[in-house]
Amino acid sequence: MDADVEADNVEVDTVEVEAPAAAEDAQPTQPSKKSLKKAAKRERFQAQKLERRAREKVAKKEKQRIRAEKRAAGELDEEDLPKKKKPRVGPPFGGRVVVDLGFDEKMTEKEVHSLCSQLAYTYSANRNAGHQFSLLFTGLDGKTLARMDSMSDAGYKRWANSEFWTEGYERLWSEDPTVKPTIVYLTADSDEELTELKPEETYIIGGICDHNRLKRRPTVSALPVLPIGTYLSDLKTRKVLTVNQTFEILVHWVDTRDWESAFHTVIPKRKFEENSKEKAAVPEGTAVVSVEEVEEQTEA
């Protein structure tokens, strides 16, 4: 039988599917004016939110850029310091820390700018300390005074628990003739180490930024050095610290009574990295002398 004949004999059942009848009364609902206003308001808010975040991001980056430039130039003001959550402040330690600013004529303008930034950091560290010192800045004059007056509209005059003298620290002995103060002038060049801080004593920090060019202030009565050599015997790099670093170490010692912890908390990590590099770079048996020793040998 032909295939065409078979195809003719095949019965195909078909099913007709009727389309659903459209609802006679169904009509598209129109949104109310109130809902349209709410939707438009949401869209505007989202658009403004994105724009606001974009502006904030740009402003934050610009602020960071300016702060980085000021930090590189040593021109950070108190207002430029990062805002930290103020910790709970306990009773004052009782001791006094004096920053001797009597080196003004020996510093360049750039060094004075760096020093003034260090003073701002010092005040900030004292303000946030668990047990605050009484701060006294002596010998404020010349370029340093002009720079401090130009920073934040002479904001240093509003520093709490701080005092400024144009006279030198020698005035300490004439404050009260009936009382003989115990004054300790800290230095980076001494064999005597400071072992503890006492609330009845006054500690003087040399306020100078000279990148190790100059000799420190001569002996007052005793010139102990912070005990870095005892607690960080492996740290062979230059141990001359900035004003604020020295002060922060004192603050941490008062809070913890632990010199080693204070040093590790304050001294920059790069100091330890530099020390490791120096050890690797210097061949065994090579004599290593400091800049101070070279200067002394040259003068001799």
- Percentage beta strand: 5-15%
CATH topology of the domain at 88-282: Alpha/beta knot
The CATH class of the domain at 88-282: Alpha Beta
Q: For the report, how would you describe the main beta sheet?
A: 5 strands, parallel
Query: Which runs of at least 5 residues are low in confidence (pLDDT < 50)?
Result: 218-222, 278-300
Tally the helices: what do you get?
9
Mean pLDDT, rounded to whole units?
Answer: 77
Helicity range: 40-55%
The span between the termini is 131 Å
Can you list the strand order of the major beta sheet? 3-2-1-5-4
Which geometry do the CA atoms define? elongated
| SS-derived structural category | alpha/beta
Supply Rg: 36 Å
Q: Which second-level CATH architecture of the domain at 88-282 applies?
A: 3-Layer(aba) Sandwich
EC number: 2.1.1.221
GO molecular function, one term: tRNA (guanosine(9)-N1)-methyltransferase activity
Biased composition (Low complexity): 17-30
Enzyme class: transferase
How would you characterize the overall build of this protein?
Helices cover 41% and strands 8% of the residues. The chain is an alpha/beta fold and 300 residues long. It has a domain at 88-282: Alpha/beta knot (3-Layer(aba) Sandwich). Helix 4 links the parallel strand 2 and strand 3. Helix 6 (243-256) runs antiparallel to helix 7 (259-266). InterPro entries: MT_TRM10-typ, MT_TRM10-typ_sf, tRNA_m1G_MeTrfase_euk. It catalyses: guanosine(9) in tRNA + S-adenosyl-L-methionine = N(1)-methylguanosine(9) in tRNA + S-adenosyl-L-homocysteine + H(+). Residues 1-16 have a biased composition (Acidic residues).
